[in-house]
């Protein structure tokens, strides 16, 4: 039966980019297939509702699972897999193993989880043990009181335990309001491949100091020029950010001339057209409306890393700064303009 389905749906399957599990942190996981620009729901995985009597059973990867069908929406139905609370992870594992057996490694598998707060209680994202899956987490780190004298976020120990017990994440989308505390410098938070964050102070969390991933987008309310200088100079020395490809910072003011003077900035001849740099996004949180590439960087300004002579372009527009690392030495980079 699998061979028949694959042969009949060959062209459709070839266009599948990824399978994504959207876990809402409460009682359901939605399974979506991502085509090029289309996101299609194919299944829900929910806690069993005992008052329903239209279940049927199916053997999925050796585990018997109760299913029923959703109500038609625009003449489309999808299966609903059910679990008892103690079996949630094993049911999800069986369904995922079935997809792995069916599609193999021809598609990406992503698990997207959300941290949320309900009646004052913080619920940590659910991360199951699944093979060949990348994990993406959406979190909000907010103090309980945001009044005239806001308190500090009090759940940092639980958040740190979550990161230490989880695999290194593919992507984090975060809203953080931290005043006196932050992540430990060696936290696995900073190992995340891609971070998209809105924060108050640029050093809380200190992504510009400890980030070990590939792509970061930071929106912050306050920063010091010294933080930007330190970041660029540590990259230039080869001391840090060896994996960094792309960084974008949105700030409360345009970086000052002191920043440009302190980083050993170099310039392409103004008569030449500088090349444009963009990267495939590690992960995009905007689903079917996603732009697959980072914002392009086209700039006459660049810096050079001492350890391998590689180049990073720097672009500044109004209150935004972009930093993009070329996989080229200074000589190779300048030859692109010839």
TrEMBL record:
Q: Which domain of life is it from?
A: Eukaryota
What protein am I looking at? F-box associated domain-containing protein
Q: Whose protein is this, by species?
A: Caenorhabditis nigoni
